[in-house]
Amino acid sequence: MQFFRFLSILVTAIMNLPLPPFPEAADHFFDALEQAFENLSDDHDLDWQRSDGILTLDIGTQQWIINAHAPRQEIWLAGPGGAHHFQRDDRGAWRDTRNGESFAATLTEALRSAGIAATPTLPE
C-alpha cells in the first residue's frame, strides 16, 4: 500500500514540475525541428537554415518561416497555407492558438502540400 501512495505522490510531483522558460523550450524545439528535417532530407529534397531564432524551410518553390516570438511566448509558422501561432499547453506541447492542433500535425499538412508524405518526429 505504501508503494502505491509513493507512486501517487511521485506522479503528482512530476505532473506539477514547472515548464522550462520559453527561450530554453524554443531552442529545444528548434533543435528537434532541425533533426526532423535532417531525417526527412535523406529521402526528400528540402533545405533549411536557422539563424537568430528563425528557421527557413524551402521545399521546391514553397517556403515556410518558423520563428520564436518571445514577447508572446509563441512559435509562429508562416507559409503558403497561411500563418499559425503555437503556445505551450500545460504539458509543454506546442498547440495552435486557434484550433488546438499540434505543431507536428500542422507541419505534416504543410509538408503534404509540398508533395512530402511524411510525418516528422517532434516532441509533444
Description:
By secondary structure, the protein is α+β, with helices and mostly antiparallel strands. It contains three helices and six strands. The chain has helices at 2-15, 22-41, 103-113; strands spanning 47-51, 54-59, 62-69, 74-79, 82-88, 94-96. The radius of gyration is 17 Å and the shape is globular.
Helical percent range?
25-40%
Strand segment tally: 6
Largest sheet, spatial ordering of strands: 1-2-3-4-5-6
Tell me the strand percentage band: 25-35%
Continuous helix count: 3
Indicate the radius of gyration in whole angstroms. Answer: 17 Å
Give a short account of the largest sheet. Answer: 6 strands, antiparallel
Helix vs. strand class: alpha+beta
Task: Note the gap between the termini.
Answer: 33 Å
Shape estimate: globular
The H-and-E topology, N to C, reads as: HHEEEEEEH
- Integer average pLDDT: 85
* Spans where pLDDT lies below 50 across 5 or more residues: none
Using brief descriptors, characterize the structure shown.
single chain, 124 residues, alpha+beta, 6-stranded antiparallel beta sheet, 6 strands, globular
Put the structure in a nutshell.
This protein is α+β, with helices and mostly antiparallel strands and 124 residues long.
Architecture blueprint of SSEs:
Blueprint: H1 2-15, H2 22-41, E1 47-51, E2 54-59, E3 62-69, E4 74-79, E5 82-88, E6 94-96, H3 103-113
Antiparallel strand pairs: 1-2, 2-3, 3-4, 4-5, 5-6
